Amino acid sequence: MSKTIDDLLVRDISRRSLLKNSVKTGVAITAVSSATLPFVSVQAEPTVTGTPGATETVRHSACLVNCGSRCALKVIVKDDTIVRIEPEDCKNDDVFGEHQIRPCLRGRASRWRVYSPDRLKYPLQRVGKRGEGKFKRISWQEASSIIAKELTRITEKYGNESIYYNYQSGAYYHTQGTNAWKRLLNLNGGFLKYYNTYSTAQISVATPYTQGDYVASHFDQVKNSDLVVFFGMNLSETRMSGGGQVEELRRALEQSQAKVIIIDPRYTDSVIGEHAEWLAIKPTTDGALVAGIVHTLINENLLDEAMINRYCVGFDSQTLPESAPANAGYKDYILGLGDDKTEKTPEWAAKVTGLPAVRIRQLAREIANAKACYIAQGWGPQRHANGEQTVRAIQLLPSLTGHFGRPGTNTGNWPYATSYGVPKLPEGTNPIKTAIPCYLWTTAIDAPETITPTKLGLRDADKLKTGIKFMLNQAGNALLNQHGDVNRTKEILADESKCEFIMVIDNHMTPSARFADILLPETSYLEANDLVDNSYASGSHNYMIAIQPVVTPMWEVRSTYDMCADIAENLGKRQEFTQGLTQMQWIEKNYAEVKSKRTYLPEWSVAKDMGVIDQQIATEKQSIALADFRRDPDANPIKTPSGKVEIYSARLADIASKWELDSDEKITAIPEFCPSWESHLDTKALEKYPLQMIGFHTKGRTHSTYHPIAQLREAVPDEIWINPIDAAARGIESRDRIQVRNDRGIIEIHAKVTNRIAPGVVAVPQGAWTQSNNEGVDIGGCINTLTTLRTSPLAKGNPQHTNLVEIKRI
Ligand code: SF4
Which of 184, 289, 332, 475 is buried most, with the most CB atoms less than 10 Å from its CB? Predict the structure, then answer.
């Protein structure tokens, strides 16, 4: 007997009726859900009122998704049912640091994640072909035993390098989730490691060559700025909460009233919210804009070259390292004296970027004449095929113009965030040192022999001993939806002769979950215990939250700590895994460690019911990046080989001479602008696919999390942004259903015709769940059906905004 999950949808979601409608052991379930239907399929709002007359109680949790914020949630519960979610109370909303950590619409809608028809309820085992989405219910004992046996079999047959923990970011726990699974795998002898993230691969790999450590000022410094220049930073649609940097920036701008300029192909909500000027740049061209700016700075004597040479190497020939050829400095490159013999005038930059030359000149003068210019970049400009050069070019601007190490300035990087510092469950030690770039796991399944150090960035080994045979994917949709080239990825996953076992742990039947061999249902964060701190984009504001199960965990969902302990038992390692402690005891242990350094904190018996236990603001000294280096660069060198900002990197020159690159790829010692494949400068490719396609985050999702919530998709519909010039040429109007295609696939989505996107560019909201129809068209509108598995040259990172497409009305 086979049922679809839709058959099992429950309209009255009171706990009793949910349990009444649950399936029996052995019933096959086909993973087809209303939440993956195209566009908005708004369901009737389920009744969530609890028992009439029951008393309301207040419980505390937090939104643990990967938006960079971490909002505390005050959850109102009636009769073990969540009835609404509110912001936690605050001490004084006028005082930064005592203000309300106000969740956005996503966090406030998170009860619908708990009561979603897509919830996974029981352990499931695949019964159809992999990816077909057919499962049968099994017991926890069976699931733990199967996993332990497969882990043992594959480890014995192929070695620990064949075991892989996939990149994920769906839930940031401290005593379960990632740390628990890695701890389990380490007890089994380790696993193949990865480096990079899908968010920051190019920036994290490129930065050390220029600046040593990744350093940045807090946003708080904007209070001392008179000019703010952002390259593609969009806090207002990504982490728009009281617990995120948007709040810190807003308050700082209120004080300084600084002019804000945002360089982005989209007129984002940040342009509106920050009262900014919008410069509509073509994707992949930020490095060319920087070159055009620097040309003006040189031409109009707006640079202090003695100062530049004090802090940097490689701007001009005086400071080039001995190994560098003559005329290899950045100044020679700008003035057309380098290898390409092209002067990077604002007119040259205008042709590349789409920005007027006069505006480029003016921008250079504004930056040079500012008293304190705060320059920062988001993570969009780097997520391109030439992202590494873009990162380094933007990092140059503060160094060349002296806007670093002083109040009101930054380093060109994403602003700094201070962690409160809550400990995590120890992962243990992984004896396997071999690491692949995280975007290359599909290659590590499909063609592991191609992953070498000089071709695809393999670290700590000359080659992979074996391909990935055991895949563990927890709280993540990068097994399919958030990875590139969805159609090709499906083929690789479906081949059971390559990766032999896939286990997925999640809250919902995501597109990735459909490819599981064993599928385990995890507690949502509203059903979990933990002690967490602020996330990576909370700025100088940092804090600690105790989260508690606001309702009894539903169906048979379990904490991943308990899942791991049971699998460890099957491996004969329960005691080693738990060290005799329950998850709750680990939480108390972690709290005791924090309290030992902050003795003013209350006892755990009080703290566990407080929600936000403590919050603070980082000090002014921590806040200004490179302040010591600015004061005395000899006494306080940065962590590059020269101790200075390396505009010319001898290490990159060395890599460029040794690595195997394709003819259209380049690694350069200075941050040259390198035209990207699949860009508007790729004239041959443009003949077939004339539009550049980028992705963007919407306010209705965090990556692909929250996608099943129909109310959010109604509030923030998925629409491709098209400039009226491009729409008129194709007879497209707003709300038309259109197809977007390239050689990798076709998606369907509704159109939004708007001047808020640069001509020649279309923008697709990322994170929508893929759903193929019978013709292989993705009617779910997932952008990754169109993105590539090809990687950027240095970081081997995902270039997910580098795509060419054509669109048509259907
Ligand atoms: S999605 Fe981010 S900003 Fe929104 S509530 Fe959650 S943590 Fe806060």
Answer: 289
Å from CA of 483 to ligand 1 middle: 23
Mean pLDDT of 779-785: 98
Q: Which residues 6+ apart lie within 8 Å of 669 measured at CB?
A: 314, 324, 328, 648, 649, 650, 652, 653, 656
Q: Which residues pair with 104 in a beta bridge?
A: none
**Protein residues whose CB sits closer than 6 Å to any atom of ligand 1:** 63, 65, 67, 69-71, 103-104, 106-107, 239-241, 243-244, 702
Contact 23, 137 (CB under 8 A): yes
76: CB partners within 8 A, 6+ apart: 56, 57, 58, 59, 82, 83, 84, 85, 86
Q: Over pLDDT 70: what percentage of the chain? A: 93
Half-sphere exposure in the Cβ direction for 661 (13 Å, CA) = 18
Average pLDDT over residues 555-573: 98
CA 701 – ligand 1 centroid, Å:
10
Write out pLDDT tens, residues 385-408. 999 999 999 999 999 999 999 999
Does pLDDT of 29 surpass 50?
A: no
Distance set, CA 567 to CA 143, 151, 580 (Å): 9, 10, 15
Q: Which residues contact 632 (CB under 8 A, 6 or more apart)?
A: none
Among protein residues, the one whose CA lies closest to atom 4 of ligand 1:
104
Average pLDDT, whole number, for the chain?
Answer: 93
For the purposes of burial, counting CB atoms within 10 Å of the CB of 658, is it exposed (0-12), middle (13-18) or buried (19 or more)? exposed
Q: Which stretches does DSSP call E strand in 40-158? A: 56-62, 72-78, 81-87, 124-126, 134-137
Instruction: Look at residue 48 in the predicted model and tell me its pLDDT.
Output: 54
Q: What is the pLDDT of residue 615?
A: 94
Whether 8 has a pLDDT exceeding 70, the answer reads no
Q: What is the residue type of 735?
A: R
Q: 135-164 as b/e, with b when 16 or more CB fall inside 10 Å?
A: bbbbebeebbbbbbebbeebbeebbbbbbb
Residue 243 has pLDDT above 60, yes or no: yes
Burial class (CB in 10 A: 0-12, 13-18, 19+), 393: buried
Could you identify the atom of ligand 1 that is nearest to the CA of residue 71? 8
